Amino acid sequence: MQNIPKMFSEIQKVTDKAMVFLQKKALSALYIPKQQLHMAMNNTTAPKVQLLYDLCKTTFTPSGLSSSPSPQPIHKLCSLLDTFGPADVGLKEESPDDDRGHGFFGLNRVTRWAQPITYLDIHECDSFTMCIFCFPTSSVIPLHDHPGMTVFSKVLYGSMHVKAYDWVEPSCIKESQEPGCPQVRLARLAADKVLTAPCGTSILYPKTGGNLHCFTAVTPCAVLDVLAPPYREDLGRKCTYYVDYPYSAFGKPYDLCHHTCYKGMTFLKVKVSVSQSEIIKLLKNHSTDSAGNGAQISNGKEEEYAWLAEIETPDDLYMRSGVYVGPSIRV
């Protein structure tokens, strides 16, 4: 009988050890390494602009998109940009009643100078640029190009009219023999529409999607842009401005300088005087194939085409730099 308490004591020790073992095992199943926990917290609490930077950093190279890009990173960027609103980049939507960018006279006919477009730099590196343009009503960024660049544009608030073109290939160029007349090149209309937030992200590519575009603010609005790679004149990525002329504006015969290209090499450069009907025949003879190579006017839809002339940076392009006050990013 004297051994019974001792036996119960031994049983109690074994039971206690078993309980401690089971508790430790249960806790180990729930344990998350500190580094993994930190990463998980960062992924759930990081500002959207940080997520955008991280995604751009893994997607773009100094020459643009990474080699042989799949649609997946493009889709990820668009899906993320689609969720952006003004608050995500430190902006608040402007009221049309407070806007003073209606031109020289304004809506109430009171003489005043138009407010400038404000440019906000979020981040720029050799691979990409993240920036914001804030437009007062009726302000315009004239028709301009993005040589060798891919651009994502997201309207954060307000309404904006977008008109965009892509060059017709092979190139069709008009060179006037009259002094003072500009050289013009044929382009096809890619977009002519109004974007109103909230709306999806627009994308333009080096040769498609409306690489040459102009913006006109219908109401106060802001646009978040991602440009990859960024403008850089010494590498051939200069921003060039254009003015567009209706295709039908050239009713009389004119000089056409046409380049016939094969595998990237110019074989022929012929300057001839042709009429509008003859240029249509010429384009049909160089119509596009299924891969999109060549120039084409389908069913005589001349309203889908325009002649673009290069111009100097417009004097009335009124733009100033502002300070980005949104969430900071870790580079």
UniProtKB/TrEMBL annotation:
Catalytic activities: L-cysteine + O2 = 3-sulfino-L-alanine + H(+)
GO MF: cysteine dioxygenase activity; metal ion binding
EC number: 1.13.11.20
UniProt keyword Protein transport present: no
Entry-linked InterPro entries: PCO/ADO, RmlC-like_jellyroll, RmlC_Cupin_sf
CDD domains in the cross-refs: cupin_ADO
Cofactor: Fe(2+)
Keywords (A to Z) from UniProt: Iron, Metal-binding, Oxidoreductase
Gene Ontology BP terms: detection of hypoxia
Keyword Ligase: no
Class of enzymatic activity (EC top level): oxidoreductase
SUPFAM superfamilies: RmlC-like cupins
Family: Belongs to the cysteine dioxygenase family.
Name of the featured protein: cysteine dioxygenase
